[in-house]
Amino acid sequence: MKIQIQLFKAFFVSGILGFGGGPTIIPLLHKEVVEKYKLMTDDDFSDVLSIGNTLPGPIATKMAGYIGYRIGGFLGLINALFASVMPTVLLIILLLNSLNQFSNSDFINNMSNGVIPIVTVMMGIYAFDFLKKSHKALGLKISAIIFVFSFITIVLFDLHPGIIIGSLLILALALPNKGGKEQ
Amino acid sequence: MIFWELFIAFLIPNLLAYGGGPASIPLIEHEVVDRYEWMTQSEFSEFLALANSLPGPIATKMAGYIGFEVGGISGSIIALFATVAPTLILMITLLNLLQKYRDSPKVMRLSSFVLPAIAVLLITLTFDFAKSSYESNKLIPTILMIVGSYIALEKFKVPSIIVIAAGLLIGGFLL
User: Fold this and answer.
1) What is the value of pTM for the model shown?
2) CA distances (Å), B37 to each of A153, B1, B5, B30, B147, in order?
3) Distance CA B98, CA A177 (A)
4) Closest-approach residue (CA) in chain A for B79
């Protein structure tokens, strides 16, 4: 039981304090799980993180589910996932629904117009981050080829992005091992 | 029916999203706005602004909230399940395999090959949002707000929650 409470606290705190998603949650989680509660060694934590990174999907929940499972079995898995996900989900549902109560007021409607340009900038910053990551992982030439191919198929031919990303994943596995610059 | 659609709408993006939370944003937008039309472009961008400035993983905030709006508490749980469960099940069942191959060039290529495609999607989304701002706010306020928030976020590293709060106030009083 003590372990379950520690798991809950560790994932609750790192989820609630992690502004900026995955990248900010991981160091917080490390501090709680490895340093504060000593639920795992530093090496094991790095291991879980690098295995988690081989799979798609949100890293914070993969860490929560796996660490919870490893330390506290199936109950630990549910417990850690719940602690890392639910507080912020409930927060956003409550916040947005209370805002929507006033959706017939002009002031509130204009308020939401004020955030659209800011989200535009946030998305632009993310886009630039992904360009940088891509350049670092693949080099300029391969990045540019995949970029142009994706642009033509997704933007000009309007194909479902899932088809393109799926094809790229298949290509990544099918190509022989000499292509692609890896770090 | 709606629960099945929610499951699919959140399953596919999260199975393709290599590169963390931001990678799943344009994929989820594609399902939620373009394909199922549960939200308009501007509703999605307003939601994203608030979601981005609150703590916690972005992918689960999107699933939890959109699932709830579309299908109540059950909808929220299903969207969250679709987001979290598949890759977690893979991770737990394939642990030995993943451990063995995690440094193989092919596995590393999986996560790097999709990066340029995600960048294309994010750029497209950026332009869509810029257009949506131009339609609601006209050209000059849009440019001023974009330049101002860029300087605040990138140059002065102002926390996004403060920038969003300022945007809400400017919107309410001036736009």
Assistant:
1) 0.93
2) 22, 15, 11, 9, 30
3) 18
4) A89
pLDDT of residue A181: 45
The tens digit of pLDDT for each residue in A95-104 reads 999 888 887 7
> Which two three-digit tokens encode residue B85?
């469960």
Say which DSSP state B55 is in: B
Q: What distance in Å separates the CA atoms of residue A12 and residue A29, rounded to the nearest whole number?
A: 10
Would you call B91 and A180 a contact, using CB atoms and an 8 Å cutoff? no
Nearest-neighbour CA in chain B from A3: distance (Å):
20
B75 Cβ neighbours under 8 A, 6+ residues apart: B2, B3, B6, B67, B68, B69
The 10s digit of each residue's pLDDT in A1-54 is: 899 999 999 999 999 999 877 778 999 999 999 999 999 999 999 999 999 999
The DSSP code sequence of A4-37 is HHHHHHHHHHHHHH-BTSHHHHHHHHHIIIIIIS
Structure tokens at A32: 């709680």
Which two tokens mark B69?
A: 């709006």
- B171 touches A113 (CB < 8 A): yes
**Whole-Å CA distances, B68 to B8, B56, B73, B80, B101:** 15, 17, 5, 10, 38
Q: Greater confidence, A178 or A4?
A: A4
Which residues of A are less than 8 Å from B164 in CB distance? 115, 118
